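Notes, Module 5: Reading structure tokens.

Key idea: the token line is not a picture. It is a compressed description, and you learn to read it the same way you learned to read a sequence, by spotting repeated patterns. We will look at two proteins. The first is printed below with its tokens.
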Amino acid sequence: MLSSGAVLLALLCCCLALLPSSSALVANPRIASTASVARRTSVLAADATAERKAKLAAFNAEQKAKRAAAAAAPSGKQAPAKSQRAGGTGVDEKALKARKAGLDALKLAAVKVQLALLEQRDALAASVQAKDQAQRAVAEAKAAPSRAVAGARDAVASAKEEVASRVKGELAAAEAKVQGLTDGAKERLGR
């Protein structure tokens, strides 16, 4: 009879023989399509959570710092016992260091929150500025024909005024010339 080890080895060989090869898995279009869909799904999920993680990073850091400060802060009942065990030398130095570290972490979290708010404000301002520029460009494009018409109208009016002024000047010169000739003729006739 075969030993138990030999039986187990034979069963393992049978199981390995029944498994498909790696080339068969790659050649199967259904398996390849499923793998592609899984990869795309993971990429989309990562993209969807990226923005949420960025927004929650500052909040999580602040909460973590608050929890660290609360855990490091000594309670009112434990402080006298620690002071007595230390020989009445004052507050526990380790507790003070832990509390200071918690406060420093809280300050750092507050700074990160402020930086995140400033980045959001700058992004919003840039978006508003881009929108205003686009609106101004549209308004200028709409107003360009009316400005061209107004410019042509002003040019025509200026040309009319120039022609009228020139005609008036020529008429005045002609009248003066005629008047001079008339006066000269009268003088000659009077003599």
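Here is the second protein, with the sequence above and the tokens below, as before.
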Amino acid sequence: MSHTKEELEEMIAEMIPLIAQHKADGAMSTAETCEKIKQVYENELHYVLTGEKITMPYEEWYDG
């Protein structure tokens, strides 16, 4: 599913206080997960704006 520029900007903006709150609560694992989600949104926004795809480091993120 593709999002609009405005939707992605809103989704990114919503992640910022969420990440800060998780860090303040000491939930670092949750904060890191939120940061990864935010990065996905930022990369999708980059694609929407430029048409350039960015390779995500999913293998590095995998904990399994």
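Summary for the second protein:
- The first helix runs from residue 5 to 24.
- The two ends are 26 Å apart (CA to CA).
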